[in-house]
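Agenda item 2: 1,3-dihydroxyacetonephosphate complex prediction
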Amino acid sequence: MHVFGLPPEAMRARLVAGNWKMHGSLAANQALLAALKARLKAIDGVGYAVCAPFPYLKQVATVLEGSPIAWGAQNVSEHDVGAFTGEVSGAMLREFGCHYVIVGHSERRGLYGESDPQVAAKFMAAQRAGLTPILCVGETLEQRERGDTDAVVARQLDAVLDAAGVAAVANAAIAYEPVWAIGTGKTATPSQAQGVHEFVRALVAKRDKELAAALPILYGGSVKPDNAKELFAMADVDGGLIGGASLVADDFAAICDAAAGTLK
Ligand code: 13P
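Presented output:
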């Protein structure tokens, strides 16, 4: 597709992914997925996904079959197979038709001690299995107030780019999720989000300009129907990773509409 006169970033696909975190039940998922299926129509250039807890992935796959909504997991082992009690491999996810997997979410980094090298290993394991990783990066409030946002985001991103090589971003999305905005109702302003997104793209561009221009960079942190449009309208914000609002069908669908509405 080529649209004359538009800059390359206008060609980037949009993606809105829901991160259900540890929420759901068979009945609640059924109702949520049925409502989303009825509401979300396939639109060129806009992707939708839901990332559900492991036990519900089969249900999600079954209910979403034939719909334009893809699905993903929230975590994956950095190992391919072996004696790793409680872990789930990329190949297992792929066997069920899983498309995306979130890696390096701040809750995994903060609560479960996932390090930059481990996140990089998970990113690579996901790709080895044919999954598309959604790599989360983002600073805490303390780090932002110290003026360390760029350094933290660069460290998190470079750990993956150094280990996996820049070519790996051809099959990945990045999600910038400032930790202070997650589940707090405090959203980054559109210009704060744009600032970091631009920085992330520039970091990738230092290694490969074309891959950087095509890379979807999502914003996450208290995205709601009433702030999605202004966030997604920013030049380097290509969609969102949605927590709380992804559990409410009308809200998630409205956020997806906002992504479609800001498609340039
Ligand atoms: P909230 O949208 O609930 O702030 O969560 C964001 C998030 O962590 C998505 O991964």
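Discussion summary: The beta strands are 14-19, 46-51, 69-73, 100-103, 132-137, 173-176, 217-220, 239-242.
Owner for follow-up: CH.
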